[in-house]
Design goal:
Elements lengths: L2 H9 L9 E5 L2 E6 L2 H11 L5 E5 L12
Antiparallel strand pairs: 1-2, 1-3
């Protein structure tokens, strides 16, 4: 993800989108849904000139480990 979109993703409460794919443009969620390709294609159609970032919002039971 682009750094601004990634920072937005990290600090935003996206619990209502848990388990869904989201597309971010200009630090805003622009499209969400269950299928990554469909969601991305829709966002690309709506925002052809924007730099898009796509992510899957983890469900609460997902464990993410960061190793250093």
């Amino acid at each position: 993800m682009g750094s601004k979109n990634y920072e937005w993703y990290l600090k935003t409460d996206l619990t209502e989108f848990a388990g869904k794919w989201i597309v971010i443009a200009d630090e805003k969620l622009v499209v969400s849904g269950n299928d990554a390709k469909i969601v991305y294609d829709e966002a690309k159609r709506k925002y052809p000139d924007k730099k898009l970032s796509i992510a899957k919002v983890p469900k609460p039971e997902t464990l993410i480990l960061v190793l250093k």
